[in-house]
Write a structure and sequence with these properties.
single chain; alpha/beta; Rossmann fold; five-stranded parallel β-sheet; 10 helices
């Protein structure tokens, strides 16, 4: 069975499956595949008709076992917008497990939350300092560039997938509330698909013994 992602940006199409496969590996489950994401512009993902249409498209695949919608929160409050989009998605999904996660404010905030793990990679400075509140700035991409070598530019279509393969999941889980929500919802989805993921998130992420 597959998890079908629904995403917002061109970079997300390549990057988000990389991240989800890392979560699958961390959960030590082998029978879950990640489908190629369905991409919809943000204005469609904050409209009931757009969300419903995307979810119905996902369900056309007979191997679709769950739907996971992820897009940037931007200036919207996740506590307000998230439940609204979740209601629309759940209605369209019927009995198929479905979750909605807003990256607050941007997907790249998860990289800021774990910047130490990216030091010396793809132009990130070897002494790059973490942002004290990685989900606060509006413009996480620009914040990343200030932590890159002079002249280096963050390229969403290439750097986002590469950083998704490299950044520390435990660090992001510790410092980013929206990444914690993603990880927790992932666990809920795979359990709803019938898989035993044991302790999730991994104890090493939470400091539990």
């Amino acid at each position: 069975m597959k998890i079908q992602p629904i995403v917002e940006g061109h970079g997300d199409v390549a990057a988000f499956p990389v991240l989800l496969r890392r979560l699958v590996q961390e959960a030590e489950i082998r029978a879950v595949d990640i489908a190629r994401p369905i991409r919809r512009p943000r204005h469609r993902l904050v409209a009931e008709g757009g969300v419903s249409q995307a979810v119905r498209l996902a369900l056309l695949d007979p191997d679709c076992g769950a739907v996971l919608i992820v897009f940037d929160g931007d200036d919207d409050c996740p506590a307000d917008l998230g439940p609204t989009v979740q209601t629309w998605a759940t209605a369209a999904a019927g009995g198929t497990p479905c979750h909605v996660v807003l990256a607050y404010r941007e997907y790249e905030a998860w990289f800021l939350a774990a910047i130490e793990s990216l030091r010396g990679r793809r132009g990130v400075l070897i002494d790059a300092e973490p942002h004290p509140d990685p989900e606060r700035p509006r413009g996480a991409k620009e914040q990343l560039e200030t932590r890159m070598e002079p002249g280096a530019t963050y390229l969403e279509t290439t750097d986002q997938p590469a950083f998704s393969a490299l950044f520390s999941l435990p660090a992001a889980y510790s410092r980013s509330r929206s990444f914690r929500k993603l990880a927790d919802f992932f666990g809920n989805l795979v359990r709803a698909m019938g898989h035993d993921v044991g302790v999730w998130p991994p104890a090493a992420w939470t400091g539990a013994s």
